[in-house]
What does this fold into?
Amino acid sequence: MSLGIDNIKEIFQRIKNRDFSGNTGLAVKNSIYQFLTNIAAKGGGFVFIIFLARMLTPETFGLYSLAMSVIMIFYGFSDLGISTTLINRVSYYLGKRNYERAKPILSYLIKIKVLLVFIVLMALFMASSKIAHFYGKPIYLALLAGMLFLISRGMVSISESISFSFNNFKATFYKEIFFQTSKLILLILAAFFIIQRSTLTEMNIFILISIVAFSYFLTFFVNMFLLKKDLNVLKKRPQIKLKNKKKINYLLIATSAMIFSGMFFGYIDSIMLGKYVLADFIGFYNIAYTLIGGITPFLTFSFVLFPIFSRLSKGRLNKGFKKTLSISIQMSVLVFIFVLIFSPMIVNILFGQKYLQSVSVLRILSLLLILIPLISLYSSYFISRGKSGTLAKLLILSTLINIGLNYLLISYLIPYGDIFAVFGVATSSVVSQFIYLSALIFFKRWV
It folds into this structure.
């Protein structure tokens, strides 16, 4: 406990003295901006979801959640670890001021990204009708709007990865403020001028997803403007032939398996529930999952430390890892207890009585408030040590366990009612994440 308190005191002392020297200082500075970015992202995201959920019925909100889950799975195919690979490799060479090596890697990964987005766009276009028919729910137009989402989200993802590679967390903070603000303003305008006057559920969901996509488009141009100074550093460097493509491709393949499996953890639950339960219950589950997802980034430091972890020796990396782990555990346990006790009040205040069936689901999922921050920290450790392959194998295994448990528990519990199937899916998520964390802890001794 004293280790965590001492580290917290050290952080506040550095902030007070504005001492951001060295790797520790850089981590503190980045943590401040990332913390502010999380406030903007999750604060804006919470307001958006609260406004959306209150504006829509649980059924319509459930359909929106189902459509977005399907779209995000397709988005996973369009990224396949490119963002993480970009941060890992480009950040490494930028840290050494080797801009000539960083530039061709960046160009190579952007070309792959463009190709993947095009392929996935065509796949989504051809599959949208069949997917909507499979679920028997009015989400066809929403999936078509997902094509705009894939393009705009992909553009922002690349620009954001460049920000992290340059350790420019300040630009990411301003970008996030703009995105959340523009998204909320467009939602409010749509609510008053379009959605309230329309009784077509499918068209309303199409409009909502298009709003998010358009906000991403605007955000991309804002972020590129903020990155202008950083990008000029690379523009002035001559383009050289990329060497060791095999090494980049290996990292990309290993990371892609990890990233795509991670996407399944977040969205496969809604996708599997969508076939068996009414749309209302998909909405109840996503309210609970959204609350957990909104809290966990405030407990996670790994993404801030990832560019720095990539530059440290094993000894210094282990020391920094232990300090961060101590702080993360203390914070996670306290927040878990708070959410467990006050779940009814949280759901009622934020979303209203029509979503109170989410309370029991939220209590089950609250265990993720302890598991996810630790998983994120251990994952960054594995990646920084060049063990993305091991990480990918463990994540794929835990994802398969999650899918298998989902199927078994849904099949067993659905006769007792839709809400019991939702309880089963929530339990599956917690169990599979626990197994994943246990495996990470076990295999870390050999990393």
Observations:
- Confidence is low (pLDDT under 50) at residues 1-8.
- The chain has one domain: 2-446.
- Residues 314-351 form the longest helix (38 residues).
- Residues 2-446 form one domain.
